[in-house]
Amino acid sequence: MKQDNECSFSKKLNAYIAGELSEIEHEEVRAHISSCHLCQKEIRELNQVENFLMQYTDEEVPAGLNEKILNSVSRSYVNPFKRKVVSFSIAASIIVSFVTGILLSDITFTQETESDFDFGQNTLYSYFEGE
Amino acid sequence: MIFLLSYSLIIVDYGSDMNSRMFETLLQNESKKMYNYLLKMLRNKEDAEDILQETFIAFHKKMDSVNETYYKSYLYRTAYHKALNHIKKRDKKNKLVTSYDEMEHFEEKTNENNKDKNLLVKNALSQLKLEETLIIELQFFQKMNYKQIAAVLETTQSAVDSKLVRAKKKLIKIINEQKKMQEDRPNIV
User: Fold this and answer.
1) Which of A22, A103, B20, B132 could bridge across to B167 with cysteines, CB 3.0–4.6 Å?
2) Are B56 and B29 spatial neighbours (Cβ–Cβ below 8 Å)?
3) Inter-chain CB proximity A70 and B60 less than 8 Å
4) CA distance A121 to chain B (A)
5) With an 8 Å Cβ cutoff, is A47 touching chain B?
6) DSSP code of A65?
7) In angstroms, how far is CA B29 from the centroid of its own chain?
8) Which pTM was predicted?
9) Residue-wise DSSP of A34-52
10) Nearest CA in chain B to A56
């Protein structure tokens, strides 16, 4: 149940301040605020939060901490991209070696098989002849 | 073959150089903000330093699988989870540490009076839930919009709005209590 001290626009006020409303909604809320004391009070409170937080000034990062991070990163890290390219290079080298191997063995095989085949045929003939 | 290998080596160097430069730039731009966020969350300098290091190292390992647009979101999400785990471990390990920290802050608070406004903010934020501290951090200090905050928290924009409203209402209450305390005891913050 809605209380007397609560306005239906209340839910939109945070988004209004943050500039997250559409242009039409923003104008609608803006027009409403000018005549609603509850919303004016809430806007003041939200601004109070912002002013309070604005007091904070960033402290400096301790000297040498960024360098320490960079050092530990460069020591421990293996770039996945680098890993992929290295794997690719290794794979490419293996494929090239394999293909070269096949080509070379094919040449040798062709030379060798001629005599092997002859031997095979001769053996076969002699087998049948013998029979 | 030689051509292939040299080409691969050029790509290797180029890729790692690009990543190193990008990481270095990100570290220079974000480490101060991140460190301050962790200070507000952890309320302890040594812990903030440790988690800052862990966050950037973890980010560096995953850098290639993260879209460049989401670097910052990824960083804050990592820092948040690491800090959360750290707090849980710290509290579990030695509850005295927490009470000591709180005592230390009280001491600082009483000694430095109004000089350290950062302490006032830190103390107020420390009374929020960790997720609320993160959401306030992202909106006020990192100037992120709802869409960006939703990406960090992995939630919807309307949920971001509700969480922000809740966190701010708590903060209003805390600020008013702080004011009342100052009025009652003008020599203390």
Assistant:
1) B132
2) no
3) no
4) 42
5) no
6) H
7) 14
8) 0.69
9) TT-HHHHHHHHHHHHHHHH
10) B118
Give residue for tokens 């080509």.
A103
The 3-class secondary structure across chain B, one letter per residue, is CHHHHHHHHHHHHHHHHHHHHHHHHHHHHHHHHHHHHHHHHHCCHHHHHHHHHHHHHHHHHHHHHCCHHHHHHHHHHHHHHHHHHHHHHHHHHCHHHHHHHHHHHHHHHHHHHHHCHHHHHHHHHHCCCHHHHHHHHHHHHCCCCHHHHHHHHCCCHHHHHHHHHHHHHHHHHHHHHHHHHHHHCCCCC
Q: Which of B151, B178, B169 is nearest to B66 (CA)?
A: B151
What is the spatial distance between Cα B163 and Cα B136, in angstroms, rounded to a whole number?
9
Contact A82 B12 (CB under 8 A): yes
A105-129 pLDDT tens trace: 776 666 655 555 555 555 555 555 6
Report the b/e string of A66-91 with b at 16+ CB within 10 A: beebbeebeeebebebbeebeeebee
Tokens of A112: 């060798």
Query: What residue type is assigned to position B145 of the chain?
Result: N
| Residue carrying structure tokens 């647009």 | B69
- In chain A, which residues have their Cβ closer than 8 Å to the Cβ of B23? 73
Count the alpha carbons within 13 Å of A36 in the hemisphere toward its beta carbon: 19
* CA nearest to B2 within chain A: A93
Q: Which pLDDT tens digit goes with each residue over B25-38?
A: 999 999 999 999 99
Higher pLDDT, B7 or A33: A33
Q: Are A32 and A9 within 8 A, CB to CB?
A: yes
Residue B22: which residues within 8 A CB-CB, separation 6 or more?
B63, B68
Give me the pLDDT at residue B34, please: 95
